[in-house]
Design brief:
This protein has helices at about 1-15, 40-50, 85-100, and strands spanning about 60-70, 105, 110-115, 120-125, 140-145, 150-160, 165-175, 185-190, 190-195. By secondary structure, the protein is α/β, with parallel strands linked by helices. The strands form 3 sheets. It has a 5-stranded mixed sheet with strand order 2-1-5-6-7. Strand 5 (about 140-145) and strand 6 (about 150-160) form a beta hairpin.
Length: about 200
């Protein structure tokens, strides 16, 4: 019996003295997948929220949509890096979606003349000298972006230009990886895309 006791004791002591193998961290960091939806689809949430107008609103009121700036750099800072182009895409998607919802949206960037160039033509501009001097705008959609670790928080509001009253407001998150990244080559849906050579 003693011999059995000593044998079990030695086996248990021997097991406790063996070291577990060290786990090594993976050499490759996993890449985050691209966002499941396009910017236009995320902005649809904003459009839905903004279309719930509180207070007086005439059905023929004219609505303009402005660019969305970073909340900590109003009027100067647009989204950069992976969010490059996000500010303008939010503006363009809201303009499209509000028109499709039946609102009277206006294009205040319309020039007085059509500009023909060698390989393209244009009628839109941000040059104030070429735009109509008088714009008839009843409401404006404006907003801000705040970058978080995983997403941009987008806050939008529909403002009455006559009394500066906010008649509707909206907020949504747009993943940071929804726009093209800074990488030269990316894979989307099994296809390779090059942004630079």
């Amino acid at each position: 019996m003693r011999l059995l006791f000593y044998s079990v004791f030695l086996v248990l002591v021997g097991c406790s003295l063996t070291e577990e193998p060290q786990k090594t961290p993976p050499r490759e960091t996993p890449k985050s997948p691209m966002a499941p939806y396009t910017v236009h689809q995320y902005v649809a949430d904003l459009s839905s929220q903004l279309s719930r107008i509180q207070g007086p609103y005439k059905g023929n009121a004219r609505i303009a949509v402005t660019s969305f700036y970073m909340a900590d750099g109003l009027g100067t800072d647009l989204a950069e890096d992976q969010g490059s182009g996000l500010s303008q895409q939010i503006q363009e998607s809201l303009l499209t979606q509000f028109t499709q919802l039946g609102f009277h949206t206006i294009e205040y960037r319309l020039e007085n003349t059509l500009n023909l160039q060698q390989s393209a033509d244009s009628v839109l501009s941000r040059d104030i000298n070429t735009l109509r001097q008088r714009q008839n705008i009843d409401f404006v959609i404006t907003g801000t972006l705040t970058r978080q670790q995983h997403a941009y928080i987008v806050n939008a509001r529909l403002v009455n230009t006559k009394d500066l009253r906010i008649v509707s407001a909206a907020s949504t998150e747009i993943p940071i990886n929804v726009m093209w990244g800074a990488e030269k080559v990316q894979q989307r849906d099994g296809q390779l895309y090059r942004s630079e050579y």
